[in-house]
Structure to design on (309 residues):
């Protein structure tokens, strides 16, 4: 009996016509925080997610499940079909994860940027863990985001900075814990991504784009610190140990908080200067006469930022 098959009863609850003898569980090995299975019966498929530990304290499981359901209802991620104490069952999305090379292509990069902007606007949430294994390109070509354990209130510059950092991690080969500095997006790629995120594909807004890119770059260390903290607090494993050790080298020692501040709110909390910079950027964008849809989203951000800063 496989680990997944122990939870067969939960599959049968939502697929009562499936015969237990025909149900197959195949583990999806790229998952890190959870144990994930493809559950199949003949031509039909489901996804089962068995939760990993939350002893690291970096997110609340009940809140994560609630957010996953809410995001799915708004068109982000797979539909949650059934939940139970140790995990949940989701609809299967047919498609494939983009390769690292795919993710860097202009077309895919533009799609990711537009999807991320849509998520921020429509849900008020960040993804906060947007690497290639947390995306899937449907067989029809549409891009989907997956795995929302680390979602939090919308903070666009952090979410984009974290995504750019993830470009350095192909998550394949013999050393998936090692970053590759040469894979970090070039300035031209970062500008293109931000251009599509902001919806400025018509040109003529270079100063606003450059300002936003600079603010994104200022959040890279926040991302590094969070994931070092995650690795060190997620339980002993060779991967976590090597990952934390390698990623620590990207953080100057004077930028690393002491052990007493190892809380998510502290590690990722933007400074007042960051909030003020974001507010300035969105103010400039509104002055550039965007479309009505852009204006609505931008004013929402501006109100939120003014309330915080």
């Amino acid at each position: 009996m496989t680990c997944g098959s122990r939870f067969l009863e939960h599959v049968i609850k939502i697929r009562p016509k499936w015969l237990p003898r025909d149900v197959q569980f195949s583990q999806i090995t790229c998952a890190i925080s959870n144990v994930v299975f493809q559950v199949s019966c003949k031509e039909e498929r489901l996804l089962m997610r068995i939760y990993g530990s939350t002893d690291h304290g970096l997110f609340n499981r009940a809140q994560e499940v609630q957010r996953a359901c809410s995001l799915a209802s708004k068109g982000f991620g797979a539909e949650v079909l059934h939940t139970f104490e140790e995990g949940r069952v989701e609809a299967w999305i047919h498609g494939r994860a983009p390769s690292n090379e795919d993710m860097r292509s202009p077309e895919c990069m533009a799609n990711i940027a537009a999807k991320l902007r849509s998520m921020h606007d429509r849900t008020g949430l960040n993804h906060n863990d947007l690497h290639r294994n947390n995306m899937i390109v449907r067989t029809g070509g549409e891009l989907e985001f997956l795995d929302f354990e680390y979602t939090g209130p919308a903070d666009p510059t952090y979410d984009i900075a974290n995504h750019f950092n993830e470009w350095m991690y192909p998550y394949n080969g013999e050393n998936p814990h090692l970053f590759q500095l040469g894979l970090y997006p070039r300035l031209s790629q970062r500008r293109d991504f931000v251009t599509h995120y902001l919806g400025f594909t018509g040109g003529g807004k270079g100063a606003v784009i450059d300002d936003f890119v600079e603010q994104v770059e200022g959040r890279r260390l926040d991302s590094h610190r969070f994931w070092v903290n995650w690795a060190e607090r997620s339980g002993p494993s060779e991967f976590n140990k090597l990952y934390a050790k390698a990623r620590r080298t990207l953080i100057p020692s004077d930028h690393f908080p002491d052990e007493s501040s190892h809380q998510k709110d502290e590690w990722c909390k933007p400074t007042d200067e960051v909030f003020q910079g974001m507010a300035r950027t969105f103010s400039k964008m509104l002055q550039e006469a965007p479309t009505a849809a852009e204006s609505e989203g931008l004013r929402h951000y501006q109100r939120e930022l003014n309330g915080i800063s």
Residues 283 and 302 are 7 Å apart (CA to CA). Strands lie at 23-28, 35-41, 44-50, 80-84, 87-91, 95-96, 125-126, 135-138, 143-145, 152-153. The two ends are 55 Å apart (CA to CA).
